[in-house]
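User: structure tokens for this one?
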Amino acid sequence: MIVPAEKTISFSKELRQTLQSRHLLRTELPFSDELIEWHIGNGYIAAQNSISINKRGYRCNRCGQNDQRYFSFYHSSSENNRIYCRSCVMMGRVSEDVPLYSWKEEDEPNWQPIKLTWDGELSSGQQKAAKVLIEAISKKEELLIWAVCGAGKTELLFPGIESALNQGLRVCIATPRTDVVLELAPRLKAAFQGADISALYGGSDDKGRLSPLMISTTHQLLRYKNAFDVMIVDEVDAFPYSADQTLQFAVQKARKKNSTLVYLSATPPQELKRKTLNGKLHSVRIPARHHRKPLPDPRFLWCGNWKKKLNRNKIPPVIIRWIQCHVKEGRPVFLFVPSVSVLEKAAACFKNMNCRTASVHAEDKHRKEKVQQFRDGQLDLLLTTTILERGVTVPKVQTGVLGAESPIFTESALVQIAGRTGRHKEHADGDVIFFHYGKTKSMLDAKKHIKEMNDLAAKND
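Assistant:
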């Protein structure tokens, strides 16, 4: 069958758009073998082995995994078994007999000038950080922005994003968690009205797009290669990014070789802190919230053997009284718990309580809807695991932690959880309580961390 020239041109444009700055499997390309082979033969498409072998053994070229425990055999249609990578199999199986395709030519930006439509005002700390960010973008440097919870990290990015887009640069804000993408996307679309912005996460309608400004989970970046001129990693210390080398590899693979890399966090990991102290990483620090009010000082409240009470289908009375007090006054309550099993037991206990309650965790299919209901004032109490410790802003919210002594509640997790309260200027005060059955070093360190930030902010006033 002979394909008309005009159709070949049309297909080629579609193929280029699909593969531009991306790293995809054959199953992700809705084009004929003949068309793909023609583009490979004429030097437009590069076909790379999905799995390579080096001195250490196998290595996945999509996710960078080289831990040999993640490689297994599967039976292919041929007589021989094939090696595949289990580390990123949820995004489609890569194996030694299946190549990864990418477009060879670098794309040429053709978008129109962008105008920042946000009419807010940056604090002095935000202005300082925004200026440093613009400089880092112009010099293509690495930068750490260490900003306290509620400092307005998203807003301080706006001038830098505007500058980058108007230079024809492609910008990506990457975050480990879907909830943060869902929080950031509408705020960025409101700040840059009319701009082409994509939000990438599991189940997103924007999957497969390549826009001038993208907000993406770090998982989705596994499909991109040499795509972004400015890579901003939000919540760089958050799980799973902080513990997953493949996600860190995805960020590095998705950015261009000559590009800007920005780390954004209220609780940066020790490695980044050491690099800043050693002069190997430029940084800017914002110790004060945008409304200049201090971070809420967490209180420690002993609640007894809460695990034993939960096994008897009871919540410690001190927690019930605290929740009832705030709900009665029209203040919504976050209650963080250490695990899904605890979440389920606690949710069952609250069914008979006279308040509108929901619970969420990482695998909850209705998490997005429940969080929105909480924001909209349709719920009084939201029980959650640490999945919502970051990136979620709810006016007037009060925050409690059940079993704050549990190992999952690290210093950074507790600081982030405390940072959910008092984020709005009109509701800058609030209650943060760590309900516990024994104090831990993490609890004490979190309280110390918050005090040091408040003290530093006061000195800078």
